[in-house]
Amino acid sequence: MKIGVIMGGISSEREVSLSSGREILKYINFNGYEGVEIVLDSKMDIYEKIQGIDFALLALHGKYGEDGTIQSILDSLEVPYSGCGMVSSAVCMDKDLTKCVLRSKGLLTADWFIVRSLADLNESSVKALGYPVVVKPNRGGSSVATFICHNFSEVVHGVREGLLVDAEVMVEEFVQGDEITVPILDGEALPTLIIKPLKGGFFDYQSKYEEGGAEEVIIEYEEPLKQVLIEMALKTFKVLKCDVYARVDFIVREGIPYILEINTLPGMTKTSLFPKSAKGIGLSYQGLLEKIIEASLRLRSDKRS
């Protein structure tokens, strides 16, 4: 089976995507799989470069890769691919829509509002959330243009920067606590990881991708919190109609978990969060790739039949 590992793309997360894709290529040639590097440099590349592949393993992040666009193209071309489908990818990429769905299903997430221009920004609305607040692009990723703001002038700066990379910016209540993530694989929760940034005050771009930027270790919370986290992660995965695998990020404040967001195409370098969690149940990096491919093929085959 010829597997096209699709990476690169046009988003601000292109370099992260290339790292994920090239790591996958090192391990993908097993069980009759033949890995092929497919680097996207423009929106139109996908039509030409996927010719002859049997399966698309997506290592894309951000705009055009994680937002349902590529998924819809592959659906129309009847090329099976890894992970979540078009609808869940599009919804989960939009933080505002994600939080609206979560709230409607009784899942706890921090208060927020959306602005589309500096003219939309109201100081009283920010004060109602309480300082500090988090300002970030609504459809961004990897903590690009994300700021923790302690006063209104910092909020204005954060919104201005966010609008350079997205048409909408989220202003969100800042929840102080443990930053954790629960990966979901084929309907099962993998071990919970706690993230301890070693550079900067939160898990920003530098902490995520620079060597020594953060420490990520498996954590075992006591009951009932342990079970609550698993149930919330699985319910999030279900209500957002995710498929195969995704990663649900939380902040736990004083024993209460708040859902931050869900990542439908998590980073897949060998040291990324998802592979680290899988290793906690004895699942190797290669074994994780195999499960993702098998589950994705089964899902897409069932949908076509």
Gist of the model:
The chain is α+β, with helices and mostly antiparallel strands. 36% of the residues lie in helices and 24% in strands.
Features:
305 residues, six-stranded antiparallel β-sheet, four-stranded antiparallel β-sheet, 13 strands, globular
Explain this structure.
The chain has 305 residues and is of the alpha+beta class. The chain is 36% helix and 24% strand. It has 11 helices and 13 strands. The protein has helices spanning 14-27, 45-49, 69-77, 86-93, 95-104, 123-129, 152-162, 205-209, 225-239, 273-279, 285-304; strands spanning 2-8, 34-40, 55-58, 112-115, 133-137, 147-149, 169-173, 178-185, 188-189, 193-197, 214-218, 245-253, 256-263. The strands form 3 sheets. Strands 8, 9, 10, 11, 12 and 13 form a 6-stranded antiparallel β-sheet that branches. It has a 4-stranded antiparallel β-sheet with strand order 4-7-5-6. Strand 12 and strand 13 form a beta hairpin. The protein starts with a strand and ends with a helix. 43% of the residues are buried. The model is unreliable at 203-209 (pLDDT under 50).
